[in-house]
């Protein structure tokens, strides 16, 4: 398959290879990326493809995963299962990747988020945060473009902006973070990853040569299992996140689509 991919890439002037993030989560994820990067580099070296043309693109499937990677985040769910922590802090973690069964009985689980989704029921302590409509927030889309939200409505009840909650925890823990305002938090973001505060801009990032050289050090073989999509259909397409899953209107619309309009009391809302 990789040979066919190489042939296809070198036969066109503007090839585009889209790598789904799910295939990078396989056990041989590093080897997959190394192989694709090598193919892209060969296409550039051959002269068939312009050096400035970006061949490899990674398509992420989780909101703000790009921003997390920009900040230096490294996935650690496997580590949590292998070395269960005494304290687990779920920061808007609602994918269900970790369950109570993965943790010791005396493990303390703290959940910080909004809408009380999948992560909340397993928590010992719940810290209500603000949704994207209730705070000034920074998000990065899949192409690496930093965007921001502004307050449309006030957070309900005791809910607070996420950075304020973490700031308060740091003070109680005796390791007070030096941030008093959101602008100070964003100044720190700029130090860690400057692109996160350059709103509505896309940073140039064509380092195919360097990436190919980096992946040459990967000591991992490709598995014999074929690369196939882990999911071909999305059953509840409009209820795949905490906000839409909490929406009664969206629930009725999904029910109307899957069971027919007669199954919904007010089909006109859909």
Automatic annotation (TrEMBL):
Gene Ontology annotations for the cellular component aspect, listed alphabetically: membrane
Entry superkingdom: Eukaryota
Domain Molybdopterin oxidoreductase, chain residue ranges per copy: 6-171
Domain NADH-ubiquinone oxidoreductase 75 kDa subunit mitochondrial-like: from-to ranges: 201-253
Recorded GO MF terms: iron-sulfur cluster binding; oxidoreductase activity, acting on NAD(P)H
Cofactor(s) required, per the database record: [2Fe-2S] cluster; [4Fe-4S] cluster
Pfam (any one): NADH_dhqG_C
Name by which UniProt lists this protein: NADH:ubiquinone oxidoreductase core subunit S1
Organism: Oryzias melastigma
Taxon lineage: Eukaryota, Metazoa, Chordata, Craniata, Vertebrata
